[in-house]
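Entry: D-galactoside-specific lectin-like
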Amino acid sequence: RPNTNIQSTSCASTSSNEIIKDACQGQNGCRLDARNSIFGDPCRGTPKYIYMSYTCIYPTCSNPIPTVRVICERQRRIINCGTGKRIGVLTGFYGRTNKLTFIAIRCPSRAIRSSRCKSRSSFRRIHNTCHGKQRCAITATNTVFGNPCNGTYKYIKMSYVCY
């Protein structure tokens, strides 16, 4: 609908690509809300929208597509590749890299003091827990990974393939 409050016709959030990539890359689907609380407000007084292009990639036997899994703090999830397949951990961290993950994944807390923190031992711990196994259980807690940012609700984000 037309809006007479448009103050600027050329503005973009500087973190939008990172936020969209974090929420959508490697997922079978994703949902994004065009809100200032997520992307910031690069042009005050102007209604904003998300414009993005994407390519869906179907997995093939010779080149498996990574699965991205987000596990919210205080949650436990099972990663299972099924009979005859093993987990190959590609990336993994425990902490927080943006404000969007709460909204996109529906984690139950809004306590975010920092959106730039990461446990130094997180990849090693995730790798040691799951890599090369058919099935593993991951728990996202400060007890396991330490507390890289006090007062911030954290999550594990990992990518893996089944081979």
